[in-house]
Amino acid sequence: MSSLPSAVCDTDAMTGTTPAGTLTAPARKALRKAQLRLGGLALTGVAAGVLPWILGGPLVAQLLGIPFLLLGLFCGYATYRLPAVSAEATRRGAAAYPAEPVGCACGGEGCCGGAASEPAEATEQARS
Known about the structure:
This protein is mainly alpha-helical. The protein has helices spanning 6-9, 25-54, 59-92, 120-127.
């Protein structure tokens, strides 16, 4: 018997999707966290780029603010596109992201269901 529950075996480790193509709870949480961090970076960049212009700083300060403004705008666009990119990666499924299974001693696809309970990394470390 396998030491892993069947829910773990039915989830693609690379994309965080189930066989039905929906995001798992940890994948949704990670997506939301990424959106919040990118959004915060976008707001900070836009604020740092616009403030020298609003406050009427010297020309040098205004020109130094332009890269920050561009950074904020690009991060804002990335934040806007993140759900669509994530949805596209989910639609592609595991075939687009071939990866070795994590923790499977046999090295095959997914969970082997065999009696091996040690991950492949632990087995390799024990041999060396």
